[in-house]
Amino acid sequence: MNYPWLYDELASKPGVTKDYKVEWQWTRYQVGGKLFAAICRDEDGQDSLVTLKLDPAEGAFLRDQYADITPGYYMNKEHWNSVNLNGAVPDNLLKDMVEKSYRLVLGGLSKKAQREILEGKSES
């Protein structure tokens, strides 16, 4: 994997919870009970993709620019994008995608939930 920092980056966001969905082979990262990132394993049990939510226009643009960014694996192909963890997407771009996915999902929560999460009052 070319992004060993990714796990800490995902888990460091305020209010994030993480679990592993055995039947999907996914490590899910959620804020306010809503998925913002999933690390997907391949048939060998190795982490191979991270799937993130983006604005549809930005996701389409990035998929056109980078072969290692594809429509979301087992997700809505308009809103979700998967990044090959063994690929060549620049670190700063992947960090930006993580931040945008988190902010997009956080922004979809109620103002009260957002405030509680950002002030550290919520565990989920």
TrEMBL record:
**InterPro entries assigned to the protein according to its UniProt record, in alphabetical order:** YjbR, YjbR-like_sf, YjbR/MT2646/Rv2570-like
What GO annotations for molecular function exist for this entry? DNA binding
Does Transmembrane helix count among this protein's keywords?
Answer: no
Identification of the protein by name:
MmcQ/YjbR family DNA-binding protein
Q: Which organism encodes this protein?
A: Neglectibacter timonensis
User: Is this entry keyworded DNA-binding?
Assistant: yes
Annotated keywords: DNA-binding
Q: Which Gene3D superfamilies match?
A: 3.90.1150.30
